[in-house]
Amino acid sequence: MPEPGRALMHARFRVPSDLRYTDLFHLVLNQMALEVQIPEERLDWVTLSLREALNNAVLHGNKKDPSKFLEVEMEATEEEFIIRVWDEGPGFNQKALGDPRDPENLFRPNGRGIFLIRQLMDHVEFLHDEAGHFGLEMRVTLSKQDNQEAMHE
Questions:
Q1: I want to staple 138 with a disulfide (CB 3.0 to 4.6 A). Which of 38, 67, 93, 121 is the partner?
Q2: Running along the chain, 153 residues long, what does each successive block of 10 average in pLDDT?
Q3: Domain 17-152 - what CATH class?
Q4: Domain definitions of the chain by residue range
């Protein structure tokens, strides 16, 4: 049995900044989800969060620049499933994002994706690496009860 916290699976991809790679990441996500038995109702949330993170990285982080790259990392431990999406943008002040449900923000084009990700995932963190890249880390807790229920369905 692997030690707690040690990765059971780990995948990392570096692709040009283009939304056409979204389907590739969803295929990898779906395969890894089968292996670690993410419950189906949670998988829909994880899939939507990944799509929003990829859209933000391409459209806002890399400004649709095809010469820039995305890095997507997926990791599974016995306790959780982790996704990191990195772009080459400088990042942004996440505290400046308002609640998209507030009347003054209803017609603003930004902020809904991050709001959804925060609602659907168990833990969300914004990251910066040594090279100055901006990243978003999303985590889903894999409870033993969820895994046992998934195995018996």
A1: 121
A2: 73 96 95 89 95 95 95 95 95 72 66 87 94 93 59 42
A3: alpha beta
A4: 17-152
